[in-house]
């Protein structure tokens, strides 16, 4: 359209000539567009219907395709310019409007221009100004452009409306499908709800039945538990009564019943033994008969060569042996006898010893009389024991009083002896100076005497002070020393009395030793010391030998002992818990308190 507008400056007559020259001849076939002109060319501002618009669009596309094909088939000389083609189009338009074809000439044959003699000459047109022509062309262009724009917009709107319509159709279909599916879902849901309700009702009913059954079972269990408790109480009472009756039953009855049970056990064992022996004999007999069959078969084979009589006799023997073996095999029982069980005691209970109802009351009366006699004896024994305890208490008090008196006397005597010894020493010192050695020896002897007295008297205090020697052993040792000193043994004497007698004996011996020559005393002391040392040496040698023997035995035991291999990971050391330290309380006691404690610790 714009090309037509821009090239409109040439005269109209020249354009008409070009259009006539470009127009096809009369005898050429006319296309569909010329036969069916566009009905909207007269009034382009009328809005066509959808069907008409679609038909017009198809017709325009077909005309364009036909023109393109015609242009491709035409030669170069037959082709015209775009301006000439546009002029021909305008001529066709004017021809359609006026009913005349303003064509000056036609192409005839090879393309020569000829004039139609029947066609009247075209009317003369007045010359129009270029400005008006441009204005008209401009208006035509604007109208055509508006039409094209409106048509494009209409086409876009139609396409969009078509898309919207298709989308609406799809949406309606999807909604219908969704509605159908939702209806199906609702139906399925209703069915499932109804089924769930029915299942819930059935489950609730089954649960209720189970609960009722559980309640019944619990009630039955409670009843059974109460009955079981009552039965257990009765069983315990019966067991108590049975133990009581067993305690009252003489042992001879149990021995007799044990003998009877042993006899029954031996009888059962003998019966089982006979059954096993019979079974073994039957098996052995059948085995012997079957073992004899090969010999008879061999004899039959041998007899068949000797003659008919021998063969018949051998066959009869074989048949008899086979029948006997079959009979012996059938006589064997199918099941072997059971072995002897480890414990074949029967479950029979021992019968009661007391079968008469009057036997137990008589026994109870007899036991009651015995119990009364025993109670009386016990009371008499308690009275005698109480009397003995009273006498022992009185004797202990009397002996304690006598012991206190003797200790006081011994203390007084020791004090007097010490005073006399001091006086004698003082007199000897003031006397003859030549007897100084003797005087010095006497005090030493007296000192030894006092030391020996202290040694003899010290064990009592030493025991009280914490010695490990028991009092019984010390008492035995004092009694042994008492007898070795030449005193007769008297069980009624206490340890203090024996020590007092020993002390008196020592004082008399020391007095005799003081009156003896000094060299004799020293020689005797050396001899006793030598004896003591040899005894100590022998004892030490014996101890060493015993220690060597023990050491050798331990070494031999270690050498022969199996090697202990440590298995696994060694145990890790752990910190020991804090130990509580015992605080020792030292009690300082004087000599009198120690002697008193040692005396109280003695067992009279």
TrEMBL record:
This protein's name: Predicted protein
UniProt key word Electron transport: no
DUF4200 domain ranges (all copies): 133-250
Coiled-coil segments on the chain, per record: 147-174, 521-555
Compositionally biased tracts (Basic and acidic residues): 54-80, 450-459
Short name of any one Pfam family annotated for the protein: DUF4200
Coiled coil in keyword set: yes
Region Disordered: start-end pairs: 1-82, 314-348, 427-464, 560-585
GO cellular component: cytoskeleton
Keywords: Coiled coil
């Amino acid at each position: 359209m714009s090309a037509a507008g821009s090239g409109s400056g040439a005269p109209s007559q020249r354009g008409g000539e070009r259009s006539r020259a470009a127009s096809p001849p009369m005898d050429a076939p006319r296309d569909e567009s010329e036969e069916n002109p566009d009905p909207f060319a007269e009034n382009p501002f009328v809005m066509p219907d959808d069907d008409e618009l679609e038909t017009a669009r198809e017709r325009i596309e077909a005309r364009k395709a036909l023109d393109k094909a015609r242009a491709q088939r035409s030669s170069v000389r037959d082709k015209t310019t775009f301006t000439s083609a546009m002029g021909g189009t305008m001529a066709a338009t004017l021809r359609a409007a006026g009913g005349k074809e303003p064509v000056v000439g036609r192409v005839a044959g090879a393309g020569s221009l000829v004039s139609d003699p029947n066609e009247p000459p075209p009317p003369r047109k007045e010359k129009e100004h270029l400005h008006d022509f441009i204005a008209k062309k401009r208006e035509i262009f604007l109208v055509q452009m508006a039409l094209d724009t409106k048509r494009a917009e209409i086409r876009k709107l139609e396409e969009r409306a078509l898309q919207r319509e298709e989308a609406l159709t799809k949406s309606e279909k999807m909604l219908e499908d969704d509605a159908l599916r939702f209806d199906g879902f609702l139906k399925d849901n209703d069915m499932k709800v109804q089924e769930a309700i029915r299942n819930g009702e059935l489950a609730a009913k089954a649960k209720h039945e189970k609960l009722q059954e559980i309640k019944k079972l619990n009630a039955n269990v409670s009843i059974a538990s109460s009955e079981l408790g009552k039965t257990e109480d009765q069983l315990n009472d019966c067991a108590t009564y049975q133990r009581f009756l067993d305690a009252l039953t003489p042992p001879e009855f149990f021995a007799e019943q044990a003998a009877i049970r042993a006899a029954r056990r031996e009888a059962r064992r003998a019966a089982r033994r006979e059954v096993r022996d019979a079974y073994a004999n039957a098996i052995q007999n059948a085995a012997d008969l079957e073992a004899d069959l090969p010999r008879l078969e061999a004899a039959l084979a041998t007899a068949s060569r000797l003659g008919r009589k021998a063969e018949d006799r051998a066959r009869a023997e074989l048949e008899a042996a086979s029948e006997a073996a079959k009979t012996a095999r059938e006589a064997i029982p199918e099941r072997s006898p059971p072995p002897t069980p480890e414990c074949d005691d029967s479950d029979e209970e021992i019968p009661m010893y007391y079968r008469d109802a009057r036997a137990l009351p008589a026994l109870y009366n007899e036991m009651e009389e015995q119990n009364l006699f025993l109670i009386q004896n016990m009371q008499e024994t308690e009275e005698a024991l109480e009397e003995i305890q009273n006498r022992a208490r009185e004797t202990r008090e009397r002996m304690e009083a006598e012991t206190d008196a003797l200790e006081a006397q011994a203390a007084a005597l020791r004090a007097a002896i010490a005073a006399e010894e001091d006086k004698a020493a003082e007199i000897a010192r003031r006397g003859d100076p030549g007897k100084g050695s003797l005087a010095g020896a006497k005090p030493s002897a007296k000192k030894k005497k006092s030391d020996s007295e202290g040694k003899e008297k010290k064990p009592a205090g030493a025991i009280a002070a914490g010695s490990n020697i028991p009092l019984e052993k010390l008492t035995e040792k004092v009694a042994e020393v008492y007898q070795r000193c030449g005193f007769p043994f008297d069980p009624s004497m206490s340890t203090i009395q024996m020590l007092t007698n020993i002390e008196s004996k020592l004082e008399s011996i020391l007095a005799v030793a003081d009156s003896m020559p000094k060299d004799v005393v020293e020689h005797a002391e050396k001899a006793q010391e030598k004896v003591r040392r040899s005894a100590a040496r022998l004892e030490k040698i014996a101890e060493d030998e015993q220690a060597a023997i023990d050491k050798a035995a331990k070494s031999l035991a270690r050498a022969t002992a199996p090697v202990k291999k440590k298995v696994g990971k060694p145990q890790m050391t752990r910190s020991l818990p804090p130990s509580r330290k015992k605080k020792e309380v030292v009690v300082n006691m004087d000599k009198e308190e120690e002697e008193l404690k040692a005396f109280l610790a003695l067992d009279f």
